[in-house]
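Check this:
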Amino acid sequence: MTITEEQKHVKVEEAEADDYDDDIRGDVLESILCYVPLIHLLPACHVSKSWNHAVFSSLRHFNKPKPWLIVHSQTTRPPYYATAALAYDPRSDLWLRISQKPPLHYVSPLRSSNSTLLYMLSPSNFSFSIDPLHLTWHHVDPPLVWRTDPIVTVLGLHIIVAGGACDFEDDPLSVEIYDLGTRKWDKCESMPAALKDSAASTWLSVAANTKKLYAMDQDSGITYSFDPNSRVWSGPYDLRHDQNIYFSVIGILRDNKMIMMGLLGNSENVKEVKVWELKGESFEFCKEIGMMPKELVEKLKGEYTSLSSIKICWAGDVMYIYNPEEPEELVVCEMAGEGVMPRWGSLKNTAVTDWSRVAERMVVTCANVGLADLGKAVGSGKGSFSIVNNGNILQ
């Protein structure tokens, strides 16, 4: 067997890499890699087998990846086009710019729901993306009922679209399910009549675990659940065990743990912002697990003296909280484990500028992003990443 010059060159490179590995071994290399931004660990994986092992060992034991916050900016007037997609990586404490190739054609305003889903809805098209970085889009027929502000949630192989119907539609509470396997829409039982005045994403907080969708009226706290298999709504459940709550939202964290975050007092005088864990078949068990520090409540208010509502975006054990009227400051809440108080911090929203305040709308998603996701994006040519600035998260 003859060895080509190219094979000789490869063997020399491998030998040089192995010699370099001899200089930095084991925990020393792993501890060094824990300070390297996630996007820069991607090429480090390909240095050698030992470096590849060190990268993944470092991510497992030293500085684990945390859910990314992704802020999508879009012009407010047609023709709609994206002005930026910025992502915050808390592991690296960096803001990154995501460039999509080719650029996406926007047919309507961009919307998000249930933290991980991005979608666009028009009379002729329903486009959605469920991958972490939203670089892959699916374009299908629209729902049978024309809607302007529905709640939209992915649950298993189903996309559930409910409420938000136009005034001229017969049933403003209609529910449709899109099957990702058959690529067909199907109508099912309408939303409960008690939600007729709030059956839109503007008024409902939505969360989903592996089995059910949950929709809470943000003002009253009244909640219903929907099972896509039986296609039946259940409830109502009153999740507010504290009568001082005037606004609340829900989310699903790791291990299908349902949480509720509530504003206590009134919009002109916010006394506290608390987090509860909800358990039981009817959520009859409510346990307070954290309270936002007062200085972070003030940051949420921004230039305003009142706080009428908040939005949350979550993945894993991390929640990003922001004031939709004043999104310049984000509050970060990380659940530290059973019986341990959450860790709180604040973060400047790099996507907010003087221009964006008047000419752009922001849509926020949150997702677990790992090396495999970054490698797929770069390898497919669909996405590239560049560092914008440090996050400088304040604990």
